[in-house]
Amino acid sequence: MPTKSSPHPSTRARPLPAARRERASDVRTAGAPAAVTFRPIHTRRAFEEICARIREQLALGVLKPGDKLPAERDLAQQLGVSRNVLREALRSLEMAGVLRLQKGVKGGAFVQAGDTSRMNVVMRDMLSLGTISVRELSEARVHVLELGVRLACANARQSDIEALEANVERTDLATREGRLLDRVECAREFYKLLAEASGNKVIAMIMDSVTEIHMRFVYAKVASSGVAMAGLVERRRKFLAALRERDVSAATRLMRGHLGAVQRMLEQDPGAMSLQVALAEMQPGMRP
Amino acid sequence: MPTKSSPHPSTRARPLPAARRERASDVRTAGAPAAVTFRPIHTRRAFEEICARIREQLALGVLKPGDKLPAERDLAQQLGVSRNVLREALRSLEMAGVLRLQKGVKGGAFVQAGDTSRMNVVMRDMLSLGTISVRELSEARVHVLELGVRLACANARQSDIEALEANVERTDLATREGRLLDRVECAREFYKLLAEASGNKVIAMIMDSVTEIHMRFVYAKVASSGVAMAGLVERRRKFLAALRERDVSAATRLMRGHLGAVQRMLEQDPGAMSLQVALAEMQPGMRP
DNA sequence: AATTATTAAATGGATCACCCATTCAATGGA
DNA sequence: TCCATTGAATGGGTGATCCATTTAATAATT
After folding, report:
1. Burial degree of A172 (CB within 10 A; 0-12, 13-18, 19+)
2. Which of B22, B122, B141, B281 should one mutate to test binding to chain A, selecting the residue with the greatest count of A CBs within 10 A?
3. Which of B281, B266, B277 is nearest to B227 (CA)?
4. Would you state the CATH architecture of domain A118-280?
5. B207-221, pLDDT tens digit by residue?
């Protein structure tokens, strides 16, 4: 007998793994060697199961943004798992932007309103891991923004256009005062507002995800070289005029021209910046 | 004195939290009340710090797909954190598709090649949380696929087209043999192949993410009603002919028409299916 | 009575010390 | 040569314990 009070009887309650293989108990006949198809699945672990269950409750609408999950100690007991493994699941969901964990009495795990910036994280990871290339991302950006411009011409509300105009004014001010980095921040906001003007949050999310990293590069380029696009504000004004007139072809043409010019600026003297460094600095929520 | 051997001296080594507030130690002057700007940051927790550091190593190229991280016990010691909290971080990164954890000797945490399907998960979460609507997703899908078709016409290689033709043959066979659900699977594969034919992995990833959930609906619809699109194979053949001829306008027109027809099929008798159920069943890797 | 400290409880954050199951290389015998 | 056994490394998981933060209830003070 061990010295401790044998805290791990193998027969302890563990309801979770019992429900693992709902999908695996399929048509497989008695003696047949499972034909050609092998299930590529790895044994499902407790924390995956927990994540899946919570996501299921979200999908079913049982859990909605603002709702609070039971306290860790209670929920762990309900699920028949240790608090540690429950936390692994909760943390994963927090990283995924689904939950927010808050300390203190009246704290707990709260369901969050969907954070559209999670897609940016995915895009960043794909770039870090070399699954996609900068070239592909830039090319995709041109196409996605062109689509965004078309939709904005069709759907932009008056308030969207006014927000864009206000942004261009800020850009103008930053330009005249020589605040180059603020100007980059304005540009970032410009694309964000343009995405909203598309009138479709899915498209907006996609536009943001292909723009965020790009703006990082621009920021790094401007910060290191001190140079910046000439005539930016004028081009923005022209573009906004086309948008206001719902002139798709003019707006598209102007946007395409601008993106090309930015691209050329980025590509000259490429040694001055590094994908690696720009990506590595992008970890937290970037600058506010 | 507590009964145990006081295992938690407050002075224990904990190097991580010491480096927390790199950003907070900013220009704040002595007596001034921090002006207007409040840092919106919540105190960074150990597991976030660990995730950020590993992602940083990925971004810098120090860690590449296939690389193995130190064993949990070693890495925890290196970072000065407990094994549990390290695991919270590793699990989060595994959920994000960045790592794969493997048991056994010679096991460990391996950096994965980027998993483009992570974007699908984000899209699903956004839908579950009500951040985006089915209507927005459907609309976005039409636009994104139109873009995909344009790119496929421009970039599809011979092998892409052949893969699509083989897919249509399988679809034809499934249709003639009355295997409706297999036919849906073929359709899923069709869009996957079309995405690849676009020649841009970013665009392909986006196309997949807006298509996956949609195909779930189609699957549920077909499974519950037993009806399916008439003339699907013929339309696919026409589309492929246009793609082969690089006829953008014809291909676009055919795709748009098809998407509209599918949409009408889905919308008739809407009571037969439920967003909630379709989403909830989508948890694992879907059917192989 | 109003205000301000104080206290106590609930909760997430983190640690430690285990134990189990799996995997695979090394070992050794048939 | 081949196959079974063994054992160490590793991730998977548990439970007990303590810390830090937050909030509400309570007590003390003005």
Report:
1. middle
2. B122
3. B266
4. Up-down Bundle (1.20)
5. 999 999 999 988 888
Closest nucleotide (C1' vs CA) to A7 is D15
Q: Do A96 and B95 touch (CB under 8 A)?
A: yes
Which tens digit of pLDDT belongs to each residue from A58-76? 999 999 999 999 999 999 9
Contact state of B206 with A64 under an 8 Å Cβ cutoff: no
Domain at A42-115, CATH from 3.30.70.3040, 3.30.420.140, 1.10.10.10, 3.30.70.1560: 1.10.10.10
B118-280 matches B35-111 in CATH topology? no
- Top CATH class of B35-111 equals mainly alpha
**B108 contacts B94 by C-beta, under 8 angstroms:** no
Find the closest chain B residue to A42 by CA distance. B102
Dist. CA B209–CA B202, nearest whole Å: 11
- Chain A residues in contact with B276 by the CB 8 A cut-off are 59-61
- The domain segmentation of chain B, as residue ranges, is 35-111, 118-280
For residue B112, the SS3 value is: coil
Full-model pTM: 0.85
- pLDDT band of A270, cuts 50, 70, 90: low
CA–C1' span, B178 to C15, in Å? Answer: 60
Q: Do A125 and B113 touch (CB under 8 A)?
A: no
